Input
Amino acid sequence: MSIMFRKLGILIKSIEKNNIREKVRCASTLPQLSSEKYNIKRKQFSNVESTDVNYFKRILGEERVLTEETDVMPYNIDWIKNCRGQSSVVLKPKSTEEVSNILKYCNERRLAVCPQGGNTGLVGGSVPVFDEIIINFTLMNKVISLDEISGALICESGCILENLDNYVRDRNLIMPLDLGAKGTCQIGGNASTNAGGLRLLRYGNLHGSILGIEAVKADGTVIDCLKALKKDNTGYHLKHLFIGSEGTLGVITKVAVHCPALPKAVTLGFFGVENFENILQLYRSAKTSLGEILSAFEMADFEAINTTVKNLKLPNPIADYPFYVLVETHGSDEGHDSEKLSRFLSKEMDSGLILDGTVTSEPAKIQTIWNLRESIAGAGLVQGYMFKYDVSLPLRNYYDLVPQLRTKLNGRASVVFGYGHVGDGNIHINVIVPEYTKEICSLLEPYIFEEVSKFNGSISAEHGIGFRKPHFIHYSKDPSALQLMKDLKQLMDPNGILNPYKVLPDM
Ligand SMILES: Cc1cc2nc3c(=O)[nH]c(=O)nc-3n(C[C@H](O)[C@H](O)[C@H](O)COP(=O)(O)OP(=O)(O)OC[C@H]3O[C@@H](n4cnc5c(N)ncnc54)[C@H](O)[C@@H]3O)c2cc1C
Output
């Protein structure tokens, strides 16, 4: 057992790079099995036999088929250590052909599979629930081509987002998305979750930025939609079926992404604000004053920043305020952009919307502030168990749920905080408690989803539905839309082997 814990620790350390702090996940107690915690019944799939393992070893080679319990364990546990599956096999294909052979075989044998990228997903979609075979894409990590004129990048699905960003930056381009998990998450995982993140306000979501996809269907058929064109109206836009479907309709093996030009000037402002109403006024003003160069407008409340500063020992460049706003601009003229942002700061300090703030174009200072913002997501993990919600709401009601939850929980939580992408109407609400209990869970769920539904919001703005939310999906999806989703699943994966127990409520 101690070896198992050591291996888990080693894996955690190796995947937690950059701004996701190691210490966040160092507590090494194993989470409860998902099937027990959430009382799930195993579906009628075949069990993995030694003949199956031998087949996989024949097509992949011994070293790319993990079967030792201690080797497999880390792949069974999700990032927030909420879910734990019971898989006994991890497969690490290196090519589309290998993925196709694996799926064809699994489909014929009725063996369920769980596709896994960087395993940074926050809704339990990337780990098995029972003994699903894990298909991990880490070794499919090659850049295939980059057209430096159009910005079209074609790569394999296991490429780590940050590696791609570094690669294209050397060629004066950037990836159109950025998120706190960039050092670990993979472009295939990003596509499968339609990841949003910090630059969505400026560069739009992946349904727009992804130009083409190659994916493998449950029966092993390779679907080649890997065009790198901006415009292609030849019939149904099939790539969209795979974007955001969380590995339930097919497995993504290659992606073509449009990379915008590397901005010559990046300027960042970090401001203290009195109340949420003022944040809304500030956002309105930022859109007018900063216009075409505005690339991010993020907020965090005092509790979010304070928890991160205290738990992770990070510096806060300004004093304590009830709310914080981070504004970033991407432009082509540093002097012009930083002057524009400084003018915005002094105008809004005069108006009282900003209480204090700092504006910088220095890369090291920019990095420090972003690091603080990006670390909020995991900061609560050192304190105990974290319930994480990720919802879209009309901006008027964006922050309403946070004080409502504090009242409802009436001191049962160590801290409740809100932060997120104001520009996209997407707030993350974290509730930190000493440990998971069903009592607290039942106070939060379905209450949060009912409230979101009243405002016609979305119960999942960017993390997806995964394993944690299929039975709540009806709060955001009309029955007719849900039926079409089920029909599509039936068509593309009739045996239901792809990521079962995820996204769709029981069929
Ligand atoms: C610190 C932190 C910050 C985050 N910030 C954001 C944020 O700002 N915005 C945001 O949207 N998300 C955010 N996330 C969530 C997460 O990083 C994203 O959902 C990310 O896109 C997942 O990528 P991944 O490679 O880790 O996928 P995984 O977690 O491995 O998988 C996610 C889902 O995609 C499926 N999948 C993975 N790879 C494939 C593939 N090749 N083919 C088919 N299905 C596949 C899995 O089965 C699973 O259902 C954050 C997470 C952390 C830990």
